[in-house]
């Protein structure tokens, strides 16, 4: 494995984490009935800063991620968790018993 390969893999992993964070922040915020401003103020961050997290352009530091999770009533793990993948339907017909 080369250094370039390792760097590319880290960038892809970070991109996946940012995408998951973006989607989860937005979904959880909407479910809680909060605006971006409400959540930013609840977590003690500037609205512009929060907007970069929800846009997927930056990752919050751990302390901020903890405050965001607390404000949303969830965990940091849940904020970073990728969306579950849908199971493909089997092409083999099932017998009815």
Write down the secondary-structure element order: HHHHH
Morphology: globular
Number of helices: 5
Per DSSP, what share of the residues sits in E-state strands of 2 or more residues?
under 5%
Helix amount:
55-70%
Class of secondary structure makeup? mainly alpha
* Radius of gyration over C-alpha positions, nearest whole angstrom: 18 Å
Task: Please count the beta strands (DSSP E, at least 2 residues each).
Answer: 0
- Major beta-sheet overview: none
How would you classify the quaternary structure?
Answer: single chain
**Residue windows where pLDDT falls under 50 for at least 5 positions:** 7-12
The mean pLDDT is: 82
Q: How widely separated are the two ends?
A: 52 Å
Strand-helix topology:
Elements: H1 3-31, H2 36-43, H3 47-55, H4 62-72, H5 76-80
At a glance:
This protein has 97 residues and is mostly helical.
Give a description of the structure:
The protein has 97 residues and is an all-alpha fold. Helices cover 64% and strands 0% of the residues. Helix 2 packs across helix 3 (47-55) and helix 2 (36-43) packs across helix 4. The longest helix has 29 residues, at 3-31. The chain starts with a helix and ends in a 17-residue tail after the last helix.
Please name the defining characteristics of this protein.
single chain, 97 residues, mainly alpha, 5 helices, globular
């Amino acid at each position: 494995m080369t250094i370039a390969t390792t760097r590319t893999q880290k960038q892809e992993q970070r991109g996946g984490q940012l995408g998951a964070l973006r989607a989860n922040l937005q979904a959880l915020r909407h479910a809680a009935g909060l605006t971006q401003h409400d959540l930013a103020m609840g977590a003690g961050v500037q609205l512009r800063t929060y907007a970069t997290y929800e846009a997927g352009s930056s990752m919050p530091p751990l302390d901020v991620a903890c405050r965001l999770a607390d404000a949303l009533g969830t965990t940091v793990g849940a904020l970073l968790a990728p969306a579950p993948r849908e199971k493909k339907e089997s092409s083999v017909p099932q017998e009815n018993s």
